[in-house]
Design a protein that fits this description.
- This protein has 356 residues and is of the alpha/beta class.
- The protein is 49% helix and 16% strand.
- The chain has a six-stranded parallel sheet, with helices on both faces. A four-stranded parallel sheet has the order 7-6-8-9, with helices on both faces. A two-stranded antiparallel sheet has the order 10-12.
- β6, α7 and β7 form a beta-alpha-beta unit.
- The longest helix has 36 residues.
């Protein structure tokens, strides 16, 4: 009997031990579920940009943070965590993983290299966190890798076409732009990054539109300045040294590079009569100021106010599981906002818009 009682005690002890193991596993499982679902209590948005020194992106992010705060719902907290990839796709991938580990429940990504988003998409898909790409559009094949991928931006070809229209209008209205009176406009282009979609489309469409408008062109040079004001100033200084007063038109893929070109002429103290016409794209604060003072003949407004608000609203809807019907998503994924031409006649409207 004593052996049977010992066996009985052992069986009871074993049973209790097993029960504790099961209970512990259940508690751990519940904790794991709580950790996963706690991601949804407050909205935490992770934002990664290719380079925070980009003027347009800096202005867009300021607006975005303001809009996110304005959309905060009662009883909720919101946070926007911004990371700078500093031109490195590897760094950007690592920052996305860090933001996911930090509990971000929506990602907004401005790609360094629009051709290789697969690592970011796979990480987000594994964590079931939607991604809003902005300003740099991934290729269609990558956007179709998962149902929770979105894009907010503008049509780069439209900005190039509008820049060409602005240039053609300036040339028609001022015969002195053709300084050597040869019936052709000698021009240079300051381009963004090699292979960048906006670089290619803005340059191609601007030049093609000038030709379509009947402007005879004589290309002097295309120079890569990586959307940078400082690089554009250096490139323009070299071009002035090479071509002197022959340059009659400068088409820049963004305002920063257009302003850099103007900086080069200012440093060399070249008179107004010997300067070309400068045109930019983006409608940044500095770009608009240059249109007001007449140093920039025009720019094309890239609607950062609208893009920031759309991005904030889409983050909010995705976080709360709201319907996306009101967004008018093209192909269920895309939001494109139109560009607008800015001249001396209407520039103050856009200055006011900047301050809204």
């Amino acid at each position: 009997m004593r052996m049977k009682r010992k066996d009985s005690r052992r069986i009871k002890a074993l049973f209790v031990s097993c029960a504790l193991c099961v209970l512990t596993a259940a508690v751990l499982s519940m904790q794991g579920c709580t950790a996963r679902t706690s991601r949804g209590k407050n909205m935490k948005i992770g934002v990664v940009v290719y380079n925070q020194t980009d003027t347009f992106l800096g202005e867009l992010l300021q607006l975005f943070q303001k809009d996110v705060d304005g959309l905060r719902r009662d009883g909720e907290e919101t946070a926007v965590l911004i990371r700078d990839a500093a031109g490195s796709q590897r760094t950007e991938d690592a920052e996305v993983q860090e933001l996911l580990d930090n509990g971000c429940n929506v990602l907004c990504v401005n790609l360094v290299d629009r051709g290789v988003p697969s690592n970011i998409i796979n990480m987000a898909k594994e964590a079931d966190v939607p991604v809003i790409f902005f300003n740099r559009e991934p290729v269609r094949e990558d956007m179709n890798l998962w149902s929770r991928l979105y894009y907010i931006g503008a049509d780069a070809a439209q900005s190039g076409r509008m820049q060409g229209e602005l240039a053609a209008a300036a040339i028609r209205s001022n015969s002195r732009i053709d300084k050597n009176s040869d019936g052709k406009i000698q021009y240079v282009v300051l381009e963004g990054e090699p292979g960048h979609q906006d670089t290619i489309m803005r340059t191609d469409r601007a030049v093609a539109t000038l030709i379509e408008k009947g402007v005879s062109l004589d290309k002097l040079s295309y120079q890569i300045a990586n959307f940078s004001r400082a690089q554009a100033a250096n490139k323009m200084t070299q071009l002035i040294g090479q071509f002197g007063n022959k340059i009659e038109l400068v088409l820049a893929n963004n305002d920063a590079m257009a302003l850099g070109a103007i900086d080069a002429y200012n440093r060399l103290t070249i008179t107004e009569t010997n300067r070309p016409v400068f045109l930019g794209i983006d409608g940044t604060k500095e770009g608009l100021s240059a249109v007001i003072d007449g140093s920039l003949a025009g720019t094309v407004y890239n609607d950062k106010n609208g893009q920031a608000m759309k991005m904030a609203k889409l983050c909010d809807a995705l976080f709360h599981g709201d319907s996306l019907d009101s967004f008018g998503l093209r192909d269920g994924k895309y939001i494109y906002l139109p560009y607008e031409k800015v001249t001396a006649e209407n520039v103050r409207k856009y200055v006011v818009k900047q301050d809204e």
